[in-house]
UniProtKB/TrEMBL annotation:
Tree of life domain: Eukaryota
Domain Endonuclease/exonuclease/phosphatase: 46-123
GO-annotated molecular function: nucleic acid binding; RNA-DNA hybrid ribonuclease activity
The protein, known as: Endonuclease/exonuclease/phosphatase domain-containing protein
Length: 292
């Protein structure tokens, strides 16, 4: 991406010549620098945004159109959050986190410590894509005094310039072996991986609602008041308790009739949020209204 009044820095996306790609402009009113490209992989269109935000600019997250199913956002956000490995969360971290959750995006960095079931669709998508393509996704923390980063970079460049060994294992064989091994390790590290989460069968709008219910990041008073300091208390308008997800789904007298209609029998929270397709649809179609 060309900068008009600066000499270095900026963002750059490289796309292999054999992949159909089309780049487009994202207007951030001179805040973050964003480069975007749509690529097509086997009839699937994938939108990739690459963002660089200097300390003194606004993040401009909402300038990106990430409504499509297949969106990848990479970049240097200059933001800290415990969600991606920092020991604290700063203001920008909060901003990125809320934007990420609002848009049902998964944080790649969180894959390593994936207790979060909501990352399953990202991991499944990556697994399925890796059947036909080689994917290398690497998170590189910047400004963190990571020892050896520069050295590794230098060595990688030197190594790439050397004459390569002629191994008898073909590229494709090596790929298959690595893939099988990684898959095995991943399954061992994620014993609770839910392969058939009905979440995947929901519409994207429904997924957003379920995601907000599961994570507690939503527009209910409890989250607004305790996390974002909006409003005067976390109380529900029924005045019988804090307006949390469990309150609305299980206890709030204002939703009692609706609940009885949706779930005639006593149904635990886990069933409503992680259960059958029907159950999850009920949670977002009717009771979901305050979460949109
Ligand atoms: Zn209530």
């Amino acid at each position: 991406m060309d900068r008009e009044r600066a000499h270095k820095g900026g963002v750059l996306l490289l796309v292999r010549n054999s992949i159909p790609a089309k780049d487009f402009q994202v207007d951030t009113k001179e805040q973050s620098e964003i480069q975007a490209v749509k690529i097509t992989v086997e009839d699937t269109e994938i939108t990739i945004h690459n963002l660089y935000c200097p300390q003194d600019k606004e993040l401009s997250l909402h300038c990106m159109d990430i409504a499509s199913e297949n969106s990848i956002v990479v970049g240097d956000f200059n933001s800290h959050s415990t969600c991606w490995g920092y020991d604290h969360t700063d203001r920008r971290g909060d901003e990125v986190e809320d934007w990420q959750i609002d848009n049902a995006l998964s944080v790649l960095q969180a894959l390593k410590s994936s207790k979060n079931k909501d990352l399953n669709d990202l991991t499944s998508a990556l697994t399925s894509l890796s059947q036909t393509h080689t994917i290398a996704l690497q998170w590189i923390p910047s400004h963190c005094n990571v020892f050896g980063n520069e050295t590794a970079d230098l060595l990688a460049k030197k190594a790439a310039a050397l004459q390569q060994n002629d191994y008898t294992t073909t590229y494709s064989e090596a790929k298959t072996i690595i893939h099988a091994q990684q898959h095995e390790e991943w399954l061992q590290e994620h014993p609770n991986h839910v392969q058939n989460d009905a979440y995947h069968a929901l519409t994207r709008a429904e997924q957003v609602v379920i995601f907000r219910l599961r994570t507690g990041h939503n527009r209910l008073n409890h989250h607004l008041y305790t996390k974002l300091h909006i409003g005067t208390s976390d109380q529900c308008t029924c005045q019988t308790g804090g307006q949390t997800v469990i309150h609305v789904l299980q206890h709030c007298p204002m939703y009692e009739n609706l609940r009885n209609l949706m779930w005639p029998q006593d149904t635990p929270m886990a069933q409503k949020l992680y259960g059958s397709l029907d159950s999850q649809q009920h949670s977002c179609q009717r009771l979901g209204c305050p979460f949109e």
